[in-house]
Structures are given as structure tokens and as C-alpha cells.
Amino acid sequence: KRFAENAERLIAALDGAGLRHRVRFALKANPDPVGLEVLRPLVGIDACSPGEVERALACGWPPDEISVTATNLSDRDLDAILAHPVHLNLDAVSQIERLGRRLAAGGLAPRGIGIRINPGAGAGYNDKLAYSGARPTKFGVYEDRLDEALAAAARHRLPIDTIHVHAGSGWLADGLPAFEAALARVAAITRGLIADGHPIVELNVGGGLGVPARADERPIDLDAYAAAIARQAGDLGLVIGCEPGDYLAKDSAILLGEVVTVEERAGTRFVGLDLGWNVNCSYFIYRYAQEIVVCRAAAAARTERVTVAGHINEAGDVFAEDYLVPPVAEGDIVALLNAGGYHEAMSSTHCLRPHAEALYLDRGDRPS
């Protein structure tokens, strides 16, 4: 139910700003069919691989509600995707060339495509998660190569019906100005393409909306987010595509673990859990802050400064450093909040540690 509530809040904000929109769930955030069943009546799907296309189809989405925005697609990927009439947003000149060749090789008719633009500016929870900026990234066609992309599309008779941008991941309230600045650049490019006669029907603003983990992190004001989109693109008369993933899924789950070690090491108090980054990659990969609650003392004063670590045999397997908790003892159960996005989707059996079991609770009609 939490998936649906998050989707409904976002849809209401876009409606309130007077935007025509298509909200699609970024499937990579959580491909579990149980959660997808809740989202199915509300949103479409943003897929980034053939496997995600197959999962969306198996869970009941028709092809025309699935958009694929992927990177470094192989011929094998394209052949699998092109077996279904889904929409593709392509993020490189070579991808446009490759798609044109695969359509011709398979005797398939040309189709409308999207182009993912890299605006040279982005927003993210941290610098690593900004998908565009001063550091070149692998995502999207930069403006200095846009003419090549247009020429490739024309050569293969691929009409450009969508312009796509993804500024970055996990950004919060402080990231809204950077998101808007990136969108302004892409909206200007879109205006030029429309003026040149390209049949663009959608401006896809990507996803990346984050969910705060700590009290000092300010959440996104969805009305302000929708207003920023309206300011930059409302006059275009296009459908606004939006691809939230983590925002819809993140606060739908918690991850429980047992404290198995409490020990001082060189002046640092380590709290070791019976789980590792293989089931919770938020800090290990993305450096997302996490909130960790000692379940028997959830409201107790946090008086001990610790490093919370996992059981994977790698030094980087930690969940929080220099982090305040209540007095904690071996045998305590802790809850790691905001575990609904990416944790289960990216879990592995590294060190032959098992995946975490997923249990689903339905609160029925009780208020949230």
C-alpha cells in the first residue's frame, strides 16, 4: 500500500501543476512482483534491460505502457527488446545506429524513438550520483553531438518523438534548483527541435527524487517539484514523462538484523550485524545515509557514537560511521529504515551469504 500512496502523492502534485503526464516506475528500484501488483493500476514502467521488459510484461503491463531507457545496449539486448512494441530512449549516437541496423536486419518497420540528452548539469544526493556535470558521464548525448544523433536518426528513418533527461539520483530539497537548471537546458533544446519539425510528443524529466534518511535531510516538496517542471516546460504543450523509482519504493520496507558483535577497536566502538552490503548496498555503493533503530529502545536517547558494520569479509562493508545510537548490546535487533528501494533488487550471494527473506505486511484500511 505504501507504494501506491507515494505514487498517488506524486500524481496529485503533477495534476495540481496542470501538467499532462505519464508516470512510470523505474523497475530497477524494486522488481518484486508483490510490489508491482500494487503499482500496476497507477503507473507505467521504465525499464533498463530486456529482463526488466520481460518482468513488466509478465506482471501485466502492456507494451505501450513500457518505456526502455538503457545504456550500452548490445545487438542481443536490442533483438530481445524489439520482440515487443515498447518505446526506446537511446543515450548514444552509436545506439541510434545500432537500433536502425537491427530494425533493418529483422525486417521491422522504423519506429519513433527518444533521445536521452546530457545537459552538462545535474543533481544528485552526492557528487557521485549526479549523472551530468563537469565530469563527463556515460549517460546521454551531449549537445555538441546532437546533430550527429539527429542525422543518424534521419538516416534510419527513426522519428524523434521524445526528449529524455535524467539529472541524477537521490537528490532532496536542496537539489531542486540544480534539477531545474538541467531541465531548463533540455527544454531549450526541445524547443529548437520542435521548431525544426521533429514530432516530439513527450519531454521525459527522468527520476532521481530522493527520500530523506536523517532528521537533517529536507524532503522534496512535490508541489515545488511539479511547479519547477511547469516553469521550464509547461509552455511546450508536451506530455511530461516522469520515472521515479526509489521515491516510490524506498520507505516501503525496513531491514532487520541482529547485533552479533559490540567491540572497541583502536578507539572506535564497532557494532557488527548479521547482515552485509550484499543485502543493503546503500552506503557501500551510493554513500546514502541510513537511519538505524535499536528496536527495544527506539525512543531512547542516542548517547554512544559507533560504526555499524556488516558480516561481509570486506573493509568497506559498513552501514554508518561516527553514528549515534542508544546503548546497544549483542543480541539486540536493529531496523535499517528506507530499505524498499535497491536493497532487494541489488542483493547478491557474495561470500555465499544468503539473500534476505522478504515478508509483506498489509495494514488494510488503517490510517498511515
Amino-to-carboxy terminus distance: 10 Å
Beta strand %: 15-25%
Secondary-structure element string: HEHEHEHEHEEHEHEHEHEEHEEEE
- Briefly note the structural class of the backbone: alpha/beta
Helix content: 25-40%
- Uncertain segments: none
Radius of gyration: 22 Å
User: Total number of helical segments?
Assistant: 10
What is the number of beta strands? 15
Strand order of the largest sheet: 1-2-3-4-5-7-8-9
Main sheet: strands, sense, barrel: 8 strands, parallel, barrel
Gross morphology is elongated
Mean pLDDT: 94
Compact description:
By secondary structure, this protein is of the alpha/beta class. The chain has helices spanning 2-16, 33-39, 50-58, 75-81, 93-105, 146-155, 176-195, 222-233, 246-249, 282-286; strands spanning 21-26, 44-47, 66-69, 87-90, 113-118, 141-142, 160-164, 202-204, 239-242, 255-265, 268-273, 292-294, 304-309, 318-325, 333-336.
